[in-house]
Amino acid sequence: MRYLILLCGFLCVTPAASADERPNIVFMLADDQSWDGTSVAMHPDVTVSKNALIQTPNLERFATQGMRFSAAYAPAPMCAPTRCSLQLGMGPAATGWTKPGHAARASAGYRLVPPQTLRTLDPATTTVAELLRSAGYATAHFGKWHLQGGGPEQHGYDVSDGNIGNEAADRFKDPNPADIFGMASRTEEFMAASQRAGKPFFVQLSWLALHGPQGATRANVEKYRRLGARSPERSALAEDLDAGAGRVIDAVDRLGLGRNTYVIYYSDNGGGGVLTGGKGSLYEGGIRMPLIVRGPGVAAGSWCHVPVTGVDFFPTFCEWAGVPTARLPSRLEGGSIASLLTDNGQGEVDRAREGLLFHFPHYQGRNTPHSALILDGMKGLYDYENSRFRLFDLTADLGEQRDLASARPAEAALMQGLLEQYLREDGAGLPVMNSQYDPVKAAASAQSRGPRSRTEGRTRPGQGPGPERRRGRPGRRQG
Fold first, then answer.
1. H-run or E-run covering 372
2. Strand, coil or helix: what is 202?
3. C-beta separation of 73 from 93 below 8 A
4. How high is the pLDDT of residue 336?
5. What angle do CA 37, 178, 228 make, to 5 degrees?
6. CA–CA gap between residue 315 and residue 304 (Å, rounded)
7. The pTM is what?
8. In this structure, are residues 33 and 215 in contact, taking their beta carbons and an 8 Å threshold?
9. For residue 453, what pLDDT is reported?
10. Rounded mean pLDDT of the chain?
11. I need a surface site. Which of 77, 220, 462, 472 has the fewest CB within 10 A?
């Protein structure tokens, strides 16, 4: 009812206008879905880049209609920091939102004290929705917000589901698990209303799934039990989510909007899977995401191997909407990927600086505070507990099993220097030594936290995605 009142108000203050040829944007954000969390291959040459058990036929069909990105990254390995970065176009090191909830306080069980973290979206900041709305777009946010700050309507969205988080998923059961199908219906209503008003639109569907797996459709749960799934409820909910995404895509086409609408499918952080690491980890399993885009000028069945990240969506959406460059925030970290989409995945992303920065200065499970930099096919990762810098060649070792820091010290030093420079430029919060640290209590605490997400012995891809890494001057601007 609340949504209908808001939508009616939106229609009343929005007079019918001539058709605006700027593209519509439908941005779908899954929750905790790993790179290999669907039946869509995320790299043409990496067999295990798709899930052999979970069935997502709608996303399979969608992928044949658009472009898949083999090296797409989330800004953070946890949900709220990524969601903040999507709204602001800056990574967690710059926003200060590095972990959901409170950071850990000084404790005998931890060698370091993590920095405090932002816990609400500052109303003084400029979101992508605010810029799009000021450019004449109708804007909507459905599903999980998780950013406080008064909710989406205080940050540029005309209509929304309000200031909700993970807890909302548990309220919805079969036949509408995690409100998947309710969100799809509200999205179709919003798109249709915008179409009648003659306005281009931007809608973000922040799916609550894969939270709330206990509410998955019973038929799918039984299906995955028969298939022997380790977690039949979670597998079932992934297929339910695929059905919801399919309804949204079909609604775009049914309304005749396909010719002029970009549809994006993406995830906020990893949830385990074939890659090393998982949620709370800056190894590939925590930050490498599925990304599929369909829209005007995007070749069907195409691929892009250029590394991209969630902070790139902000300038991309603004470019599509015709927002003048002068109006973009001065600290914008991302670069537009629009040219990659229309040039068959070829080219580079023009960002303010080279490489992709990741910062997670917290404990999560048995992951310790760490930061990472990806540049020119290489990845450097710094562990704050032991002051160790690791270096991986992602083009040859996607599983991150071979640390090259000792074998290539000059390259490791260069990468570590850039990582430290970027963190200083962003004013990043860093962990500090803990005066209360007790090694005996720390060992007991580590034992209770369970196994590391950087698991060993799992079958992993031997070769990384993308064309052979171009060698040359370190620090050259690249995707």
1. strand 370-375
2. strand
3. no
4. 98
5. 45
6. 18
7. 0.91
8. no
9. 46
10. 90
11. 472
